[in-house]
Amino acid sequence: MVFPRSILITGCSSGIGQCAAYTLRARGYRVFATARHPADVARLHHDGFESLLLDLNDSATISSALDTVLQRTGGTLYALFNNGGYGLPAAVEDLRRDLIRAQFETNVFGWVELITLVIPVMRRQGYGRIIQNSSILGLTAMPFRGAYNASKFAIEGLTDTLRQELNGSGIDVALIEPGPILTKFRENSARVFQHAAIDQQHSPHRQRYEKMLARLAKPGPAIPFTLPPDAVVNKLIHALESRRPKARYYVTFPTHLFAFLRRILRARALDRILSRL
Asked: Which of 51, 267, 269, 270 is the most buried (most CB within 10 A)?
C-alpha cells in the first residue's frame, strides 16, 4: 500500500500557510494544518483538514501537536513547513526587551523547538524535508523592521547550519525567501504595533510611524511586484518533490533584485536604496 506523504504546516489560519494546506491536499498530501487559535483550528477542521492547535509560543502545544501527528501516521512524517510568525514594525531604538523576546519566541525559538522534535523522527525513517519560510528581510535589512529582520536573519543562519549538519542523513533542508506577498501580514503588523504600545508621541520617528500605519491600513498590494500566496507554494512544491531541492528559493522580483544588489554593492550604497523604500 502506498501512503500519502504527510506534512505538518504551522500558521495555517490564513495567507501562505492556508494556501499551502489547500494546494498540497489537492496534490494528494496528508496535510496536518495547525493554527494557534482554537477558532481557526475549528474552521480548518470544518473544511476537512486534520487540524491541530499549535502555538509556537507554547511548548506544550508544539509537543502535543506533533505527538498527535505521529500517532495518526504510525510514527512517520515526510515534511515540516515552518511558516507561522509575525512582524513587529518599529525602530530599533523604540524596542523594549520584551518586544524583541516575543518576536523571537514565535519566529525563531518555536521553529527551532519543533525542528528538534521532528529531526529524530526523520532520522529513524531515513528521509524527510524541512522547509523554512523566511523572507526577503532575511537577506537584506530594512528600516523599522529591526525585530523582524533579526528573527529572519537568525532563521537563515540556523537553517544553513542545519543543512550542513544533516548532510547525508536523508533529510533535506531548504529556505523560501518571499518578497511582497498578498496576505494579512501588513494588517497583522499594524495590530501588533498597536498592541506593543510603542511610545510614538515621544519617539523621534513619530512622523514616520504615522505614515507607516497609514500605509499598512491600505487594502490591496502595498508595493509593485506583489504576488499571491500561490507563488510561495509553487516553490514549496519544488522543495518537497525535487530529488535535489535548492538551498534557497527566491520569490518575487524584489527578492531576486536585492539578493543581486547585496552581492555587487557596498553596504552604504545598498543602505541608501533600502532606506528610500
From this structure: 51
